[in-house]
Amino acid sequence: MVRFEESGDTVKVIGAKSTPEGIRAEHEYIAARLGEEGRDWKLVLQLLLDKEGVRCDQLEVELASGQRQTFLFDISEFFGIEVESGLIDLPPKTRTGCLGGVLAALALAALGRLRG
User: Fold this and answer.
1) Residue 3 carries which DSSP code?
2) Domain locations in the chain?
3) Which residue of 29, 36, 85, 94 is most buried, as measured by CB atoms within 10 A?
4) Cα gap 58→8, rounded to integer Å
């Protein structure tokens, strides 16, 4: 079961067994605070960051009112874990949109399978 630990401006995601499960948990965390995604808020930006050696996912959302809010998640426990292929890692200073990071991780996994 995924749980969250809040510390300052960062929320640590604990217990996610894969990157997709961790990302879903981030959205559930936001929904528990702001309401239904797509109705009460929408994701406008997601960045993969390195914050003092800790992998973080920064999500910026726009509320139905037009106001924006930013969430910072510590994803070091689950980042790069793909369900079938195990741990996949990217360079520590990688900054990319979430989709780009996920696609890069999946591409690395596929390349690993092809090579053997």
Assistant:
1) E
2) 3-108
3) 29
4) 14
